[in-house]
Specification:
Radius of gyration: 21 Å
Number of domains: 2
Helix content: 10-25%
Order of helices and strands: EHEEEEEHHEEEHEEHHHEHEEEEHEHHHE
Low-confidence stretches: 1-33, 402-421
Structural class: alpha+beta
Largest sheet: 10 strands, mixed
Number of strands: 18
Length: 459
């Protein structure tokens, strides 16, 4: 089968990038794919902006702090010597199902809080902080069965966040254009594709690894069986990921996205198929273990022998290329009679070969499967003209928002003295690093890096 990205082993041929030597040594992320060094109160975090949320873009944000997966990168830093600190969506190095979330202290002497897992959870935590509401409230999805007793959710008592969170990572954008407390700042472009597993052993031309948008819409709308029929006439089951993720939101409710069914419908379809709706996103190994024909769903009588799940194309590329921790290697195995890996959708591959590595297929990223990724901050911080303290640093690092009285010209932030102009996250260094992680820097039409988009209130 000609699908790109399917390899027997992991590719490690990525040159070690030169560390910049800039930054705050006692706060930068120095271990592989780790939380900041002060996770439980060690060191001084006075000069950082702290973020939580999306799994999809946690790796590129870790690179922006100085390192990810044992590779050093130039840390993003503004003219006030402020840099970023980013906490993973799950406990670093744990990839089980359900995931281990644990609890974190985002700033010294700050509260011990449940780790927000996913874009939605990060946004909700930031909204709770801005309102002075304790985190997490019932139904906010921060907890997991593996939650340690030390975490506040396990004890049943939400806690005030104070100023624990400065920004949230998000792989989905605002739902409407009505003004509110949050601004979504686009900085790069991902695509949301499909990981596939097919053990029917039929011709690959029409299997679950060669699907159409119509087939996917059929499967994720099927709340009775959670299946669709592929071109070979075989049933394919649909799986869904963490409902608090931006992946789940974009896949389901985004009106500009490819599937455009409600999240309740897509979750019901996945539950009906037997897959459930709690797979950790971009963990192809977790998907493989859930469905494979030896121990998983495909081995059960009456269940489909083929399955699909949404998965970030950027994450597939970054993991294949070795810049992110590899959680997809089981889908790159060669097993007789089984097709698996990244699916072709409507005849488009999700990536293309770049020597021994992979790169985005720009044609696929330009379809309705393409999505911008965002840093989410408070409206007040992004629109204030009284530029002081953290407000100034948020605008220096991320940009600001246009208004009728103070229009903003992308690439010419009045706060930034970089030679290119514009927010630090939109500079050449940051944009070049985004490419390293399988992201494009051509944004959705009408979006500009560093220009925040308004959102409705996140409850």
């Amino acid at each position: 089968m000609p699908r790109l990205g399917r390899k027997t082993g992991q590719i490690f041929g990525v040159a070690l990038m030169l560390a910049s030597g800039i930054g705050l040594a006692n706060v930068a992320t120095t271990a592989a794919h780790a939380d900041p060094a002060y996770s439980f109160g060690l060191g001084n975090s006075a000069n950082v902006l702290t973020g939580v949320g999306s799994d999809t873009i946690e790796d590129i944000l870790a690179a922006y702090t100085g390192a990810d997966n044992g590779i050093s990168y130039p840390a993003l830093i503004d003219k006030n010597n402020v840099q970023l600190a980013s906490f993973n969506a799950v406990v670093p190095g744990t990839f089980g199902q359900p995931p281990t979330l644990g609890c974190i202290i985002t700033k010294p002497n700050g509260p011990l809080i449940d780790r927000p897992n996913g874009s939605g959870a990060g946004q909700k935590a930031l909204s709770d902080e801005l309102q002075g509401v304790a985190w997490p409230q019932a139904g906010q999805g921060a907890s997991s069965p593996a939650q340690p007793a030390a975490c506040n959710q396990a004890g049943g008592s939400p806690v005030p966040l104070g100023n624990a969170i400065d920004f949230a990572r998000s792989s989905s954008g605002p739902s409407t254009s009505s003004p509110d407390q949050l601004r979504f700042v686009p900085f790069a472009h991902d695509a949301l594709g499909v990981a596939c597993y097919d053990s029917y052993g039929h011709s690959s031309a029409g299997d679950a690894c060669h699907v159409t948008t119509a087939q996917l819409q059929s499967g994720y709308s099927n709340t009775v069986a959670g299946t669709f029929t592929d071109t070979n006439g075989d049933l394919v089951g649909v799986c869904m990921v963490n409902p608090n993720s931006g992946t789940a939101k974009f896949w389901g409710t985004n009106p500009n996205g490819p599937i455009n069914v409600s999240q309740a419908t897509e979750n019901s379809a996945s539950i009906a198929s037997g897959c459930g709706d709690q797979l950790e996103e971009h963990n192809g190994n977790g998907f493989y273990n859930a469905v494979n024909n030896v121990t998983g769903l495909a081995s059960q009588a009456g269940k489909p022998k083929a399955w699909v799940v949404p998965l970030s194309s950027g994450q597939w590329i970054a993991q294949f290329n070795g810049v992110s921790v590899d959680r997809n290697n089981l889908l790159r195995q060669t097993i007789a009679g089984v097709s698996m890996g990244e699916a072709e959708i409507d005849g488009n591959t999700q990536n293309v070969a770049n020597g021994q590595l992979l790169a985005p297929n720009t044609t696929f990223y330009a379809t309705s499967y393409g999505r911008d990724v965002y840093v989410v901050v408070s409206t007040t911080a992004l629109t204030q003209t009284a530029l002081h303290g953290g407000v100034a640093d948020i605008q220096l690092m991320f940009g600001n928002s246009p208004s009728a009285t103070a229009p903003f010209t992308p690439g010419n932030s009045p706060l930034d003295t970089n030679t290119n102009g514009g927010a630090v996250i939109c500079q050449t260094t940051a944009q070049s690093e985004a490419h390293t992680f399988g992201l494009e820097t051509t944004l959705v039409a009408g979006h500009s890096c560093g220009v925040g988009l308004p959102s409705p209130f996140v409850s």
